[in-house]
Amino acid sequence: MNFEEKTLSRREIFQGRVFQVAVDEVELPDGKGVSTRELVFHNGAVCVLPLTEENKILLVKQFRKAIEATSLEIPAGKLEVGENADPKAAALRELEEEIGYRADLELLYDFYTAIGFCNEKVKLYLARNLEKVANPRPQDEDETLALYELDLDQALAAIEAGEICDAKTIMAIQYWQLLESGTVS
């Protein structure tokens, strides 16, 4: 069975600092007609599950304009131009900028955030052996962050309460839960 859609034309709608928007006209598989696809192109991002020696997670609380609310999240950030070649370095940068730590990183997953319309691919790292940085890199000028430390039960309760509503953070906490149960190593 053929699933591939052939792009007939592309119209660029928006070119921003973080993403681009386009509308494609596509031929549907097996000649079943023509349709349009609204697409968002993103350079990608990194995120980090930082676990302390006391087996707690470090999260940042910040306001998210898209949902007009605050959210508790794992440290994360977009890949800057040229960082695709070394996303681990970008993850280390975000860890230091957002929470003031360095660590040993292990790649857990690559995942897409919303494949129905967006190509943003995120790399999720596990951070172990956290070490406080004496003079960490400054936070981005447009960020206002507060640091929180939660145990697993508190993190799960925060998900249930809607304080953690971000998919990457929920995924990271679910990995942590599997780690605790011995399902993953």
Automatic annotation (TrEMBL):
Gene Ontology CC: cytosol
SUPFAM superfamilies the UniProt entry points to: Nudix
CDD domains in the record: NUDIX_ADPRase_Nudt5_UGPPase_Nudt14 (cd03424)
Protein known as: NUDIX domain-containing protein
GO biological process: one example: ribose phosphate metabolic process
GO terms, molecular function: hydrolase activity
Entries under InterPro entries matching the protein: Nudix_hydrolase (IPR020476), NUDIX_hydrolase-like_dom_sf (IPR015797), NUDIX_hydrolase_dom (IPR000086)
Keywords: Hydrolase
Cofactor: Mg(2+)
PROSITE patterns: NUDIX (PS51462)
Start and end residues of each Nudix hydrolase domain: 41-172
Pfam family, one: NUDIX
Source species: Streptococcus danieliae
